[in-house]
Amino acid sequence: MRTLTALLVLGGTLLLGAAQARDLRLPKTSADDLQKICTSVGGSFSPGADRYGCGTDCKGGKGTDCLVTCAPDKPCIGQVIGAHRPRTVAQALAPGKKKR
């Protein structure tokens, strides 16, 4: 019974976390500019011809919590966790406060 309860709590927590993620439309950003921003916030840049992106530990813990992907000459798409609503690529990737 304890195992079932633990699995239900874990499943609910994961669903709640996924529900808090949101996709945002961000300004156009070149691959070079995204790489510079990514490096400055300690993220991981992924280059590509059609799409390029950056992921960061924006919540302050392990794992990639925030992601920005871009295509040449198109607005970028940011996926962030939680309630913050960034307006720029740098804001979307910047580290937030650590949870205790």
Query: How would the global form be characterised?
Result: globular
Distance between the termini: 29 Å
The average pLDDT is 78
Main β sheet profile: 5 strands, antiparallel
Structural class, please?
alpha+beta
Give the strand line-up of the largest sheet.
1-5-4-3-2
Estimate nothing, just give the exact number of structural domains. Answer: 1
Q: Strand tally, please?
A: 5
Number of helices: 3
Order of helices and strands: HEHEEEEH
**Unreliable stretches covering 5 or more consecutive residues:** 1-19
Roughly how much helix do the residues carry, as a percent range?
25-40%
Tell me the fraction of residues in β-strands, as a range: 25-35%
What does this structure look like?
By secondary structure, the chain is α+β, with helices and mostly antiparallel strands. The protein has one domain (21-93). The protein contains 3 helices and 5 strands. It has a 5-stranded antiparallel beta sheet with strand order 1-5-4-3-2. A hairpin with a 5-residue loop joins β2 (44-46) and β3. The longest helix has 19 residues, at 2-20. The protein is globular.
Question: Which characteristics define this entry?
Answer:
five-stranded antiparallel beta sheet, single chain, alpha+beta
Short description:
This protein is α+β, with helices and mostly antiparallel strands. It is 34% helix and 25% strand.
SSE diagram, text form:
Blueprint: H1 2-20, E1 21-26, H2 31-40, E2 44-46, E3 52-56, E4 66-70, E5 76-81, H3 89-93
